Amino acid sequence: MSSDSSRRIQVPDELKEVLLQFSIAFLVEQPPDVIDYAVEYFTKLQADRPSVLNTDQSTDDQVSVNSQDADEPPVMATSRRKSVFAEAYDPEADDDDDGATAVFPKTDDQRARLVESVKNVLLFRSLEKEQMNQVLDAMFERKVQPGDYIIRQGDDGDNFYVIESGIYKVYINDKHINTYNHTGLFGELALLYNMPRAATVQAETNGLLWAMDRQTFRRILLKSAFRKRKMYEELLNSVPMLKALQNYERMNLADALVSKSYDNGARIIKQGDAADGMYFIEEGTVSVRMDQEDAEVEISQLGKGQYFGELALVTHRPRAASVYATGGPVKLAFLDTEAFERIMGFLTDVLKRNIVIYEQMFTDMARRNTNL
Ligand code: 1OR
Ligand code: 1OR
Predict the structure, then answer these.
(1) 20 to 30 A from 26, CA-CA: which of 81, 219, 224, 360?
(2) pLDDT score recorded for residue 159
């Protein structure tokens, strides 16, 4: 081989691009094994290729934060069913790392209002203080009037919005699907997944929004928000009760969860205490025990994918039982009362069915005890 021929070896652009995408995904995900991850990554990439027949079905059972349930409207089911890997970490994300974050100076009053507005933004929960300050600096105020279209379905994503005030209606294919009342956020999906806008958002009243541009959103929020949604996706998909939630609501639920770990034997909930939230079991098992005369009696064991601590939230009563970590350390995802009410409020009826079961068991147990 001459030195001439070696000079002619060129790295094709496609190869460069694929490797870059893979490297970004790898660095963000930080998986334990590069080979296993590469197999998973490239298998997904291949399945998502537009030229592959029947892509709709082939991506169905893959890990995809925004894959849709069959009962959701067609627009979401078709145009948005894409691999998270392919969409969220394109080389464009790399471009977004250029330059400094925009700073919009604010009066004390503006900053105070902004801080108040972002207090309950679940997407910001995993941010560190420094990142949170960057977010506050980068947000700018936008006043809206009744009838204003803030977002139109199908457009490219420009900004992401946090609501300070106003009522906003959300439409998919002209069908009204959601309303925001003076609180919440919208416009994050297109920026998070690099997809066209999933819905139209129109102001019903005068209102005030805080906006953040796409680059800043991707630079500061993409990694943390995306990683969190992905981390909890499998867990939330495995909880039967949550099947009643729409995919979009499950994503919001993922934003709200906080991981907590308990050593073997540690008490997680104490019977009689006031409730501050509920728990989903990510790893390990717990023992549910009730005070009976002088002793504590185990009444149930729960494992991965199951939940507890919901009863007090639904009944607004003290904790009905104590719960302990058993058989090694336990990893839990905690959902605080406020987020529970916001996201799971309408599931209360489903949860209430449990109360009937608990009461039935309690009666059975009491009867057994008196027969002894
Ligand atoms: P976006 O950037 O795609 C439209 O622009 C925004 O509407 C979207 O981000 C969300 O922030 C917001 N499904 C999809 N997007 C929704 C939904 C929603 N609700 C609000 N947005 N669903 C309603 C869930 C109660 C699911 C409908 C199938
Ligand atoms: P919580 O918020 O009252 C204790 O805190 C949690 O233990 C409770 O929510 C349930 O999630 C969970 N009866 C009452 N609470 C139970 C029970 C239970 N099992 C789990 N928890 N029974 C056992 C049913 C298998 C009835 C016992 C007689």
Answers:
(1) 81
(2) 95
- Same domain? For 161 and 277 the reply is no
Mark whether 178 and 114 lie in a shared domain: yes
How many domains are contained in the chain? Answer: 2
DSSP state of 157: P
| Residue 86 covered by a domain | no
Same domain? 212 vs 243: no
Say how many Å lie between the CA of residue 186 and the centre of ligand 1: 7
Position 87 scores a pLDDT of: 39
Residue 100's CB: how many other CB atoms inside 10 A?
7
Residue at a domain's end among 219, 252, 270: 219
- CA dist 118 → 161, 164, 227, 291 (Å): 10, 8, 20, 42
Task: Return the pLDDT at 371.
Answer: 61
Q: Verify that 183 and 128 share a domain, yes or no.
A: yes
Instruction: Indicate which ligand has the atom closest to the C-alpha of 201.
Output: 1
Q: Please check if 367 is assigned to a binding site.
A: no
Residue 252: domain span: 239-369
Q: Which residues line ligand 1 (CB under 6 A)?
A: 72-73, 76, 151, 157, 170, 172, 177-178, 186-190, 197-199, 201, 246, 248-249
In whole angstroms, how far apart are CA 318 and each of 272, 299, 349?
Answer: 5, 18, 19
Quick one: pLDDT at residue 358?
Answer: 76
93 falls within a domain: no
Does one domain contain both 193 and 254?
no
Residue to mutate, 268, 358, 363, ligand 2, most ligand atoms under 8 Å from C-beta: 358
Mean pLDDT for each 10-residue chunk of the chain (372 residues)? 56 73 68 85 76 32 31 31 36 49 90 91 84 92 98 95 97 92 92 89 98 90 81 84 79 89 96 96 95 90 92 90 93 91 74 74 72 56
Q: What is the CATH number of the domain that holds 159?
A: 2.60.120.10
Q: Supply the pTM of this predicted model.
A: 0.65
In this structure, the residues whose C-beta lies within 6 A of any atom of ligand 2 are 269, 275, 288, 299-300, 308-312, 319-321, 323, 358, 361-362, 365
CB 330 within 8 A of CB 281: yes
